[in-house]
Specification:
It is built from 16 helices and no strands. By secondary structure, the chain is mostly helical. The protein has a domain of 211 residues.
Length: 354
């Protein structure tokens, strides 16, 4: 079996060690999400030099399953009951993300000189691949959608942890103080997580390998069958791989072809990000949760990145994961319906490209 058979490319091999070193440097500097952001910045430099860096799919899937399993371990019976109580708020938060995209689509279409379909699917807070695929089926420009989603996740991951860390450096809301898993339990938990991720992928769920592992291990943990936490080195490795995947999206040939879309998209995405944070701040006045936890719950970042952020900042990781999962499911389920029945019929300000 060759490296190619395992999906390991020359670009990945070139970037792996520098990305890990970059992550270790950021971590040593005490920055939040150090392993992820350091790896993302280094990989982004490779990508800007047109080095194609692709994380091997099997490795990435297992890493996401490990992350989901780690979150699932925190779902005790009490936490499971709490998640059910918050379910209506999760749905509202997901709908707000969709509503924000609908509201600002005409602005991005006009100032970014793109079709409304491209603007709409670029703003929906769903997965990059999912939104690119669904958007393309509705006439959106796949390249623009993928690029703006990469920018969206990078903005949230790059700015949000720094802001929360600056204002709330010791405001953790940990769920429980748990011990490290022993090796036997660690292997079993990862196997259960991988099985759950595979099952979710077969069902076509968004962020399937993370969400499926979370649900599978969470079910066991909520029934009292397992407890503990993942070792730090494993979580560092997951951060590096997620960071490499994030940085790999910033290829120069892709970004240089859509400068107008990026120029218009940056302020629009920032506005949505700030708006959702403002909603979270208002919600914190009436909800018995810390402001950082609510900001992460309402944020429009990627699910893996927000789960990692909540873990690093000591927030309620199970609740953040649940909010992000509900939003992802809603966005993927409703994207096409919302486009056909709201945006495409009501938006008369379509500005063609060119």
């Amino acid at each position: 079996m060759t490296l190619g058979d395992l999906g390991i490319t020359r670009g990945f091999l070139l970037a792996l060690l520098p990305a890990a070193l970059g992550g270790s440097l950021w971590e040593a500097l005490g920055l939040p999400l150090g392993w992820l952001m350091g790896a993302a910045v280094v990989t982004g430099c490779f990508a800007m030099c047109n080095v194609e860096v692709v994380v091997p799919k099997p490795l990435y899937k297992v890493s996401l399953a490990a992350l989901g399993a780690g979150v699932g371990l925190s779902i005790t019976p009490d936490v499971a009951a709490t998640l059910l109580v918050w379910a209506p708020v999760m749905i509202v938060a997901g709908c707000l993300g969709i509503a924000a995209a609908v509201f600002v689509t005409p602005l991005l279409a006009r100032f970014g000189r793109m079709e409304s379909s491209t603007a709409f699917f670029s703003l929906l807070p769903g997965g990059v691949i999912e939104m690119a695929n669904v958007g393309e089926s509705h006439g959106a420009d796949r390249t623009v959608v993928a690029a703006l989603h990469a920018v969206r996740v990078a903005l949230v991951v790059g700015l949000l942890p720094l802001a929360l860390y600056a204002f709330f450096p010791t405001s953790g809301d940990p769920i429980q103080d748990v011990v490290l898993l022993n090796w036997t339990h660690l292997v079993l938990v990862i196997l259960v997580g991988v099985a759950g991720g595979w099952a979710a992928a077969q069902l076509g769920l968004p962020a399937a390998w993370l969400l499926g592992a979370l649900i599978a291990v969470g079910l066991l943990s909520s029934l009292g069958f397992s407890s503990g936490r993942m070792p730090a080195f494993l979580m560092a490795g997951v951060q590096v791989l997620v960071g490499i995947s994030l940085g790999a999206g910033f290829r120069r040939d892709r970004l240089s072809s859509i400068p107008g879309a990026l120029g218009a998209g940056l302020p629009v995405l920032l506005a949505i990000m700030v708006g959702m944070a403002a909603v979270a701040a208002l919600a914190s006045l009436i909800m018995p949760l810390s402001l950082p936890t609510l900001v992460l719950c309402f944020s429009i970042g990627g699910m893996a990145e927000m789960v990692l952020t909540s873990k690093v900042l000591g927030q309620n990781v199970a609740l953040v994961a649940a909010f992000q999962a509900v939003r992802a499911v809603l966005v993927n389920a409703c994207a096409g319906v919302v486009w056909r029945n709201l945006v495409s019929q009501s938006d008369t300000s379509i500005t063609p490209k060119g």
